[in-house]
Structure formats: C-alpha cells, structure tokens
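step 4 of 6: structure.
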Amino acid sequence: MAEYKFLVHKEGDSVGVASDDLKPGEKIKGRVLEGNKEYEITVLDEIVLGHKISLKDIEKDEEIIEYGEKTGIATKTIKIGEEVHVHNIKSRRWGGSK
Amino acid sequence: MKDKILAYKRENGKVGVRNHVLIIPVDDISNSAALAVENIIQGTLAIPHHYGRLQFGKDLDLFFKTMIGTGSNPNVAAAIVVGIEPNWTNKIAEGIAQTGKPVEAFYIEKNGELKTIEKMSRSALKLVQYATSLKKEWVDFSEITISLKCGESDTTSGLASNRVVGRFVENFLQNNGTILFGETTELTGAEHIIAERFKKKEDKEKFMRIFNEYQELIESQEVDLLGSQPTQGNIEGGLSTIEEKALGNIQKIGKAQIDSALDYGEVPVGKGLHFMNTSSAAAEAVTLFAAAGAVIHLFPTGQGNIIGNPVIPVLKITANPKTAKNMAEHIDLDVSGLLKLEGSLNDHADNLWGKIIETADGKFVMAEMLKHREFVLTKLYPSA
C-alpha cells in the first residue's frame, strides 16, 4: 500500500487533511476517504498533522470546499501544496479571521 | 456482535449501567452538607453545583427538569435530596420518586447543617445497603440510551473518530437503540444537512426554530463567536471555520435519520435518534443528556478534552495519534489507525461496540477512574 500522508473527505474538495507532519519540498501522496482517487502534491509549507493542504490553486474570494460542502472563503490566493488555515481562509458565517 | 448486557433494571423498567446512591444538593449553600455525607458514607456520590437560588421562569423550569432528570437517571439506584428550605427540595424529591426508586429529602433551615448531615448519613446507610443488594440482570443492549458529543475537536475528529461513532450509531439504531445528540451552535454551516434528516416536518421546523433563535441571540449581542467557536484548541488542531467544525461534528450520526427535536433536558419519547438543544460546552451538554436518560456517553476528542460526568460513564475516543500517546490516561479507544487506513470503519465501529458493552457491564472508563465528575447546569438567564 502506498504511504498516504493526507486524506480527502470527498472527491472535488479543494483541501485535504495531513495525516502526518509534512515538510516543505516533500512530494507526497494522498487519498480520498471513500473511493480510490489518489493525489500527488509537492508540499510548500511546514504542515502539522491535522492541518489542511491545498489540492489546487485557489483564487482570493473563492469558496473552500471540504466534505463536498462550502466551509469558508479564501482571503488571499493559495497555491497548490500550501497550508490552508485561518491565515488564508475565513468563515462565511461568523466574522472569520483577519 | 454481543447484544446482551448485565445491567440494572429499575422500578420503571429503564435500564442503568451504574448503581449510584446520589446526594443531590438543591442549591449552592447545600453543597457542603452533600459533600459531608459523601465523605462519611461509602457508596454515596454528591453532585455539587452553583445554582438553585432565585431562578425564575423558563430558567427555573430547566433547573427542576435537570435536577429531577439527574436523580431519575437509570444509573441512580436511590437518591437523597438536601436543600436549605422544604418547597424546592420536596419538588425535586417528588419528581425523582415518580420513577419508583427510594428518595429521601432533608432541609437545613431550622435544623442546622450538623443535625441534617447526621440524619442524611443515617438515611444513606439504608439506601446504600438497598443499592448494593440489587442484582444485575441480562437485558438487551438496545434497552440503554447513549448520548453523543465531541470536544476539543480537530480535523482528525471529522476524518476518523466521529465517523467511527457515526457507523456505531447506524448499527445501534438498526438494533432498535436510542441515541441523543445536540450541540446547537456546532451545527452552524451543517444545519441544512441536519434539517433534511428529520423524519417529521414538525420536528424539522422545531429544530430550525431552536437553531435560528440561537443565531439571533448571537446577532443581538453584535458579536460573532470566532475565538469561542471554533475554540483556540480547535484552531490549534487545524480547524479553521465553524462550518468545517460543524461538518466534522455531524459525522457522529452517520447517515441516520432523526426521530425528534427536543428542547433542553426534554426526555425523548420512543427509541431512535433524537436531537436535543444543548450548549456545545461539554459538561453542560453531557449533564443535559444524562438528565434526559442517557446512561453512557460517547465522546470523541481530537486535542484531548478530559470531561467526565458523575452519573454516566463518558467514553473517550480519539483518532489523533499524538493525543492517544500523550494523554493515554484519558483515552478509552484509539482509532488513529484509520488515519493510516489501518482497519476499516466497520472494524473500528465493532471495537467501539465491544468497548460500550464492557462499560455497560461495569468496567470503568478512564474518566471514572480519574474521578472526573463535571456536573454543570445550563443557565438560560441571570438569577433574580
């Protein structure tokens, strides 16, 4: 079995979740939870287990999709392989981060 | 899978998995007497709290519902109620007595605390002998009510531990079990999914009314809940927004349909899956679930919330391998293997089923051994 370092809730999500601590420059594989779709991404940031990694280039103000649902909006452009967290996305519902 | 447990069948037919003689203070100033009896008499358990004076209206109703519900919980064999004055004390004692279990009431005013402690202690001697003479019986696993609430969640909760609970819930409901869940604010961003799961239109409407009322309360305060929801611990664990947290949260009910929407502390009618309006604060929610009859609570945690409850075992499940290792004394089931795709969801859900059966049969969970007894009342508005 391939060594997966991140998992994706649903096909079509814009983010995956690190299932291990990730280092910049690492080329890693991930997999969707249900189904067989695999991803291969080069990590751009230090990302600790549980934090999210971008699966695509995301424009500022673009919706973030996780679980196949809208979970927030990008507050700046995000490159594939970057960490996705409160520094670059915010809630659509409650204020959100700076 | 094993579907029979050795448990206590109470006078009203409800099934309990623990056998407490509970000492219930009615008000903050009776805590001292309740704790004194717990110290003197082996086998008693006091549940101190901060309220029970000068409450009114809906808040007072909820107070009585919670206190009566807690004493009526099937994990309680017998209860002693102690308050400063007779009226409210009797109201709680009479409410609990409706279950048919032995209940005695004591008042401190005009007696003094020391005399009251002596009378309560003598009463406790009889009640503990009664409780410890009770025999467990074989009953169907499906006869118990189980509640759900996660805490100090992180992304591993939505990825794995909540999903394991969700698969268990699907299986338990298929076996005719009863499940309670809640956390009104932690459904924000997933409320449309929950709303569509209600079997009956009137329950969907009741749920949306409960949900919207809380959103309006937040708006009326001209705040948003960021920093409070998600919590700092949630953010540390990788959760960025309330929507993401809510979508992870609802994994706990799997794909199940919902049988009813309940207000704070309301006892469900019939088996199945029931939503209850609760705070997302762990101790408040678990206290309300226990007051509505839950006898075991399932608590998935990511970053490691250590909550327990005095009357019901709170069983902790984590999928975060760091938490499983660093906080091992709090964790009952480690499902972190799922992050490495080790074992199927069904395998882990079966392990959880086994853990719950063991707990129902009497094996202590970690929170019980660590004496975590958080009993926290939900307060709707300031006291008069």
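step 5 of 6: annotate
 - Chain A touches chain B through 33 residues (CB under 8 Å).
 - The longest strand of chain A covers residues 27-32.
step 6 of 6: archive
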